[in-house]
Design brief:
The chain is mainly α. It has one domain (9-57). 64% of the residues lie in helices and 0% in strands. It is built from two helices and no strands. The two termini are 18 Å apart.
C-alpha cells in the first residue's frame, strides 16, 4: 500500500482472496498448495481485521476501506 498499488485494504484483500481461490481451484484438494492457500487466507483475514481495528482506533477509516 505504501507504494501506491492499493488505495485501500479492501483492494489488497480482494487480490489475496482471488489468489487463494485460484490456488484451490487449480490444485487438488488436500494438496500442499491447496492447504497452504486456505491457511494463508485464514491468517491474512485475521491480521487484516487486527490492522483495521488499530487504524479505526487511530481515526483512519478511509485507509481501512470503510465508508
Amino acid at each position: 500500500m505504501q507504494h501506491g498499488k492499493y488505495k485501500t485494504f479492501d483492494q489488497l484483500a480482494h487480490d489475496v482472496h482471488t489468489m487463494c481461490e485460484n490456488a484451490r481451484t487449480y490444485n487438488e484438494e488436500g494438496s500442499t498448495v491447496y492447504l497452504d492457500a486456505t491457511a494463508m487466507e485464514r491468517e491474512f483475514d485475521a491480521n487484516l481485521q487486527q490492522m483495521r481495528d488499530v487504524l479505526r482506533g487511530m481515526g483512519a477509516p478511509a485507509v481501512c476501506g470503510l465508508p
